[in-house]
Design a protein that fits this description.
This protein has about 270 residues and is an alpha/beta fold. The protein has eleven helices and eight strands. The protein has helices at about 45-50, 75-90, 100-115, 135-150, 150-160, 165-170, 170-185, 185-200, 225-235, 250-255, 255-270; strands spanning about 5-15, 15-25, 30-35, 55-60, 95-100, 120-125, 215-220, 240-245. The longest helix is centred in the middle third of the chain and has 17 residues, at about 135-150. Bound molecules: D-malate. D-malate binds near residues 36, 101 and 250.
C-alpha cells in the first residue's frame, strides 16, 4: 500500500514506533540517520534542500525524538536492524543512505550485514574504529554523571565539542536548537545509547567489501571523528570520494549546510543508478 508523505509520520518497526519525515519524489530515496544524541530535525537543512529534487526520508532512531524506545537491549546492531525493517515497512528495496557519526556506525553495521539494500552511501563525520579504553572510560563517566546529576552539564560540554568557536559565539540559533534536542532526550536513552556506542565493534576490517559509490564528508575541525578517520575510510573504500568541509566541526551539516548540501547534490547527481 502506498504510504503517506509528510512530517512526523508513524510506523511500527521491530515492535517500536518510528517517527519519520518523508517528502519529495524519486525512484531511489535518500535516507538520513542522525548522530548521538540528536534527532531527525538535525537534518532539516538537507531535508528542505534535497526534497525539491529527490525523495528524502529522515527518521528518529529508537529512544530519540518522537520514536519509542522499546524493551530490547540497545546496540548498534539493533539500530541497524531497525533501519532495515524501516526500509522493508516502506517497501524500499534499496536506498541511498547517509549517516552522521553514530548514524555512520549504524550505517556501516547495516552495510556489512545487508549490502544489497544500499545503492550508495554517505559517511559523514564518522569512523570505523571501535572505542579505545580511554574513550570507554570517558563514556562511563558521562553515564555516571548523567545518571546522578542529570543532563545539563553533559549537554554543555558536549556542545563545546561539536561546534567550532565561531558557531558557539555567533550562531546561537543552531547551538540553541541542538541544546534543546539533547535536553529533550530521556536519560535512559542517553545512557543506554552511550553504552551501545562504547560496545560497538570495529567495522574497518570489512570496508574493503564495500563497492557501491561512497561519499565521505568531514568537518575540518571535527574533534570527535577527525579528518584522519575520514581519510582512513577513504583509503579503504574503493569507490569513494572524500570531501573536507572548511570552518566546520562534528556537525558539519548544520554549521556549513550550504557547502554540505552542494557536496551531497553533486554526489547524488553523478550517481548512475
Ligand atoms: C555522535 O555524534 O553520534 C557521537 O558523538 C559519536 C561518538 O561519540 O562516538
Amino acid at each position: 500500500m502506498l504510504k503517506a508523505k509528510g512530517e512526523n509520520l508513524l510506523l511500527t518497526v521491530n515492535n517500536i514506533i518510528i517517527s519519520y519525515n518523508d517528502s519529495g519524489t524519486g525512484e531511489i530515496p535518500i535516507i538520513f540517520i542522525h548522530g548521538f544524541p540528536f534527532d531527525k530535525s538535525s537534518w532539516q537543512p538537507q531535508f528542505e534542500f534535497l526534497n525539491k529534487y529527490n525523495r528524502v526520508i529522515t527518521y528518529d532512531i529508537r529512544g530519540f525524538g518522537r520514536s519509542t524506545c522499546g524493551t530490547k537491549e540497545i546496540s548498534i546492531a539493533n539500530f541497524a536492524d531497525d533501519l532495515i525493517d524501516f526500509m522493508e515497512q516502506l517497501e524500499l528495496n534499496t536506498a541511498i543512505v547517509c549517516g552522521l557519526s553514530m548514524g555512520g556506525y549504524i550505517l556501516l553495521n547495516a552495510v556489512n550485514r545487508f549490502p544489497d539494500k544500499f545503492a550508495a552511501i554517505i559517511l559523514s563525520d564518522t569512523q570505523c574504529i571501535a572505542d579505545s579504553n580511554e574513550t570507554i572510560e570517558k563514556r562511563q563517566q558521562s553515564i555516571s554523571s548523567i545518571s546522578s546529576g542529570g543532563i545539563k552539564e553533559f549537554t554543555e560540554s558536549f556542545l563545546k565539542n561539536v561546534f567550532i568557536e565561531d558557531t558557539l559565539n555567533k550562531n546561537l540559533k543552531i547551538v540553541d536548537k541542538t541544546r534543546s534536542i539533547i535536553l529533550a532526550t530521556a536519560v535512559d536513552s542517553l545512557t543506554s545509547t552511550l553504552n551501545a556506542i562504547a560496545n560497538r565493534e570495529e567495522t574497518c576490517s570489512s570496508l574493503k567489501k564495500i563497492t557501491i559509490p561512497t561519499l565521505i564528508i568531514c568537518g575540518k575541525e571535527d574533534k570527535i571523528t577527525p579528518p584522519l578517520q575520514a581519510k582512513l575510510l577513504k583509503d579503504s573504500i574503493t569507490n569513494s570520494t572524500l570531501c573536507i568541509i572548511e570552518n566546520a566541526a562534528h556537525l558539519s551539516n548544520l554549521e556549513k549546510s550550504e557547502a554540505y548540501n552542494t557536496e551531497l547534490a553533486k554526489f547524488i547527481s553523478n550517481l548512475q543508478l
